[in-house]
Design goal:
The complex is a heterodimer of chains A (268) and B (431). Chain A is built from nine helices and no strands. Chain A is 78% helix and 0% strand. With 431 residues, chain B is of the alpha/beta class. The chains are: A mainly alpha (268), B alpha/beta (431).
């Protein structure tokens, strides 16, 4: 049952993403309203699917990669809805939903049930996974707002309003949103990863560095740490900060890909 | 009713400014003309919209052509322009076309600057003036209140009035796309020319304060700073001030760029990544084009601003197409309503006529039947009512249907003739 409900949620997200993009290009308020309503409906279905799966399996559904990605999507969509309300960035879902869908649909179906850590489901693993997932969800938003910033910056620099121009928020607001999402994500990511490394450092020994998921997570953390310190200490703003956020997200995707393709200690 | 509704006039589309300016008359004169048109019975209802871009007479008249001639003869007489001069410049529309025209004008779809907001207020003023002269009747009243409602919908449902179409407002709008709000932003004005001053004032109107003025001639800078309630700064400090402010407006007469990429890059260090918006309204340009390549710096020269305005105009035109179809739907609805109104008096008088006959005949019959008991009386009452209703049914339906189809007047004539209703009620609610 949860698979069917999940598919309904996914379908709602797909249509919502299409409507959000269309409303951006053709600037119809009706379309953006439709997009928002579908997003909310999709998110509610998604919530139901997660709960159902948890009940069916009799455990918290965060232990396989598919479950983890599903949870990241769930949180990212929730944060997107919240940010749209809080910051009045009504076009945000046009950039967040496609990313979320790419994540959801990008998982090869055969690998969907790949276990991250099938044996142990102790408390600390849940905390480790949970914190990292919250961080990842905020980073999805960080990527979305960085893309929006660059698109709008390019249009203003080129002095030619394109089709996205009219419905975008101001550059300053986008830059603030990029900064806020990164600032929010970073502590979760840091503590979550640190927990993982601290715990694995004792048990895994040298395997820690050869585990692809662990290795790329570290690289990802470094890129985001550099971006955040650049913003705080070097006063990076605008284009450079946005490029770094995008680079960080690319490493994030590689990390997820590595988790799917290579079986390190995480997968065994 | 709708057939006798008309609009006649001239606008920027048909008449040159040289003619339009001759037709501008003051309010008292307008009152006089309005009173005259209704007083002589040329128009049942009338109002005149008179702006610098259009002079139009809206009214209800048996012979619209006559009303149009009378109105413009008087409007022209003021400055001695004869009707023959005006006649070829005039357009006239009646019925549903007049309704459409009224809706389009009020919605600013017929304006010189598409979507400009003033016209709605001007039409409202004209309506209020006619109301105060008591030349507005039910037809103009419903036409105009609907026109105002349509204009409001066009403004809220389409973007025909959004996005700046003047260069100075385009600059303010751009600033809003870079900075979130303009409140508390500071402006540096370089050069003391009139254009720069205007642009700075525009920013002040939208919340940016304070203003700094730098000029090669320090006294002129001080003078202008006083006018703008700003601060004069020495010209040599240009780039240290540039490091502080958010918006820079340059308008000096310098033959070579005075703001180079290296200068701005130096100022950027102290800005800590805050965006800088430079508006260069000088020709030749004061700002080197390469400055725009710097991160977080946005330079707009006159051409760039104009191209934004062009894009905004295209945007308005695109939205105008949506507005036109909205107007069309509203016109159809309004015409239907007006037409269904025009048959109402005929239906009412037909019903009254038959009811009169029924009552008279019933009374006559009852006097001949003094012995009739209550049950018989009631039966006769019901019988006569039933017959009248059956007879009324077909003509009533026919009238309503024909009014919807747009030829109600013909059937009003036919039915009035057949039932001997007389002409008094045929003119509808406006009479």
């Amino acid at each position: 049952v949860n698979a069917v409900v999940f598919d309904i949620a996914l379908t709602a997200y797909i249509v919502a993403a299409a409507a959000a993009l269309a409303s951006l290009v053709w600037r119809r308020d009706g379309l953006s309203r439709l997009a928002r309503e579908l997003t909310v409906a999709g998110w509610l279905c998604h919530t139901a699917a997660i709960v159902l799966r948890g009940v069916e399996l009799g455990r918290v559904p965060v232990l396989t990669l598919a479950e983890a990605v599903s949870l990241v999507i769930w949180m990212a969509v929730f944060l997107d809805l919240w940010v749209e309300r809080r910051y009045g960035v009504t076009t945000f879902n046009a950039f967040v939903l496609p990313v979320v869908l790419a994540l959801g649909l990008g998982l090869p179906t055969g690998l969907r049930d790949l276990a991250l850590e099938p044996r142990a489901s102790s408390g600390w693993i849940l905390v480790h996974v949970g914190l990292v997932l919250v961080g990842l969800a905020a980073l999805v938003l960080n990527f979305g707002s960085a893309i929006m910033y660059l698109l709008q910056e390019r249009q203003i620099k080129a002095r030619r309003p394109g089709s996205f121009y009219y419905r975008m928020p101001s550059l300053e607001r986008l830059d603030r949103l990029t900064q806020a999402t990164l600032t929010a994500a970073f502590p979760f990511l840091t503590v979550g990863l640190a927990l993982g490394f601290a715990r694995a450092g004792r048990g895994w020994g040298r395997d820690l560095l050869t585990d692809p998921l662990a290795f790329f997570s570290l690289v990802m953390w470094l890129v985001y740490a550099a971006t955040l310190s650049g913003r705080v200490i070097g006063h990076w703003r605008g284009r450079r900060a946005a490029y770094f956020s995008i680079a960080g997200f690319c490493v994030l995707l590689v990390t997820l890909g590595a988790g799917v393709l290579f079986q390190g200690r995480h997968g065994s | 009713v709708i057939e006798r509704l008309f609009v006649a006039g001239l606008s920027h589309r048909t008449a040159p400014i040289a003619v339009r300016e001759q037709l501008v008359v003051d309010e008292d004169k307008l009152r006089e003309i309005l009173g005259d048109l209704t007083g002589r019975g040329t128009c049942a209802e009338v109002m005149i919209v008179s702006t610098c871009n259009r002079v139009e007479v809206y009214g209800v008249a048996e012979v619209p052509g006559e009303a149009r001639g009378a109105a413009f003869r008087q409007l022209g007489a003021h400055r001695g322009i004869g009707l023959p001069t005006l006649e070829p410049l005039l357009y006239s529309k009646d019925g549903a076309e007049a309704v459409q025209h009224a809706f389009r004008v009020a919605s600013s779809l017929d304006s010189m600057v598409l979507g400009e907001p003033q016209i709605l207020g001007q039409v409202k003023d004209a309506f209020a003036l006619a109301q105060s002269c008591r030349t507005v009747g039910p037809v103009l009243h419903s036409l105009m209140s609907q026109a105002f409602a349509v204009a409001k919908r066009v403004r809220s449902d389409t973007e025909v009035g959004r996005h700046a179409v003047s260069v100075s407002f385009a600059a303010v709008e751009l600033a809003r796309r870079i900075f979130d709000a303009l409140d508390g932003r500071s402006v540096l004005l370089v050069g003391a020319g009139e254009m720069g001053e205007l642009a700075a004032r525009h920013f002040q109107d939208h919340g940016t304060l304070p203003v700094y003025v730098a000029n090669r001639t320090a006294s002129r800078a001080q003078e202008l700073a006083r006018d703008l309630a700003g601060t004069a700064v020495p010209f040599e400090d240009l780039f240290s001030v540039m490091a502080q402010v958010d918006i820079v407006i340059t308008s000096t007469a310098a033959p070579e760029p005075i703001v180079t990429s290296a200068d701005v890059a130096g100022a950027l260090h102290a800005r800590r990544g805050r965006p800088l918006f430079i508006i260069d309204i000088a020709v030749p340009r004061n700002v080197e084009p390469a400055v725009n390549d710097l991160d977080n710096v946005f330079v707009y020269d006159v051409d760039a601003l104009r191209s934004v305005v062009d894009a905004n105009l295209r945007e308005r035109r695109r939205e105008a197409q949506r507005a036109e179809s909205l107007v069309e739907r509203e016109v159809a609805k309004f015409a239907d309503r007006l037409r269904s109104l025009e048959v109402v008096p005929t239906i009412v008088s037909l019903r009254e006529k038959l009811e009169e006959i029924r009552k008279a005949e019933l009374a006559r019959t009852l006097t001949r039947l003094p012995a009739a008991d209550e049950a018989t009386r009631q039966a006769l009452e019901a019988l006569s009512q039933g017959i009248v209703n059956k007879i009324l049914h077909a003509p009533t339906v026919k009238l309503r249907d024909s009014s919807k189809a747009g030829h109600g007047l013909r059937w009003i004539e036919v039915i009035s003739e057949l039932f001997g209703l007389g002409g008094k009620d045929r003119s509808g609610p406006s009479a």
